[in-house]
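Hi X.,

You mentioned you wanted examples for the new student's onboarding notes, showing what a folding record looks like when two proteins sit in one file. Here is a clean example. The first protein comes first, with its sequence line followed by its structure tokens.
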Amino acid sequence: MKFRKDFVTNSSSSSYICEITGDTRETYNGELESSGLIQCVNEHVFDDSYVIDNFTLDQWKKDFIDLANKYIEENLSSIESRKTYNTDEEQKEYEQTITEDNKGLRKNIEDVKLLKSKKEIDDFYEQTEVFEEIESDLGSNILFKCQCPICSMKIASKSDYKRYVNKIYKLNEEKIKSEILNKFKTYEELENFLNEKD
């Protein structure tokens, strides 16, 4: 898959945390790729060096079709919710837009089913306007579950590791925070304790 590398200078910056390393990165104008980060469809943000390349075509097809069907369903459900505040004319126009969007998504699904090799994925992206709104929301090109080391269970994210430890060992976060504050009088004491070798 091709990744955009351009970004606007003199634009606003935001900070993102790599969920694998815990590093904080500055991004420009919402473009994750400007700082070497990427986001998968499940919103895991991580360094693009961790992207999985050895996924199978069938895995990629399934992820693509699942995401396309999800957006088709969301589009259809949005029609009903818009009725409460749209005028009749606005609603008619909105429904036509959704119909066209879903027609395009269904065409994408049929085209993806015809792909015979991973080499054809780049060509498919270059020849098709795919999921532009999703890419805009993500701040990067779409990265499917099969390409994400967290979704693929190749690497545990820092937050999932913490949640798992808390659940398995029945740890109470508030109790731990209180214990830290009571046990250590200065931050240096805490740092020394954490850096001690067991």
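Then the second protein repeats the pattern, sequence line and then tokens:
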Amino acid sequence: MPDNLAVTAQLAQFVDDTQWDALSPLVIHQAKRALVNFFAVALIGCREPAIEITLRSLATFAGAKQATVIGRGERLDALSAAFLNAASANVLDFCDTHVPTVIHPTAPLAPALFALGELRRITGRNLILAFVLGAEIECRIGLAISPSHYRRGWHITATCGIFGAAAGSCKLLALKANRSSARSASLRRKPRGSANASARGPKAFMSATQRATDCGRRYWRRMTWPAPPSRSPAARAISMRWPRRHSCRVSPSVSAMAGKS
């Protein structure tokens, strides 16, 4: 088995090296579809009882009104807004699915990037690139530990999604991978190490409310870094599935959204 630090360095370098030109038109199209789907499921979920309770809890401690809460008039600090948007997208469990791992890749990733986008000026291209790389990383890690991870009781969207949020945020912030010794950990490897320490989410407590808040916490950490789900026709109509095949090689190609191995 490869050394853990070496794997981290490889993944960090992959994220650092990959630029817009590496994205095929199909990958870009799938990224846009995933983001449209994210807004759709967040809009449907944003008034669920679990989200109302979470909003009241977070509002007590919220800071400056920095970022949008999707589907609502309230604005909260960036951390709290990302938390709520992640929870809203995941609460009904109709967000996009990477079938081989059953990860919902967008819900633990997009809210962090959008919140960062309200704190600083970013381009649409940079947002999509960061999103694609974050999704690629979380799904690669998910493939490496599937299917045993989920079967042993872990909520894989939470435990792997945090790595996607870390990778995507680092790309959006233009943090560089380290080329020096492991002793002086890089700006990128530090968040990824912190993500590793923070990743958790047992299925034993995975009610709709708990699942949503698990997903929300992925953003909260990375930026520092009751009723059963509805099965309505509207929710079914907006749900989508991630492509079935995925590459787990560390290489300059980006393949998750294109469905290529």
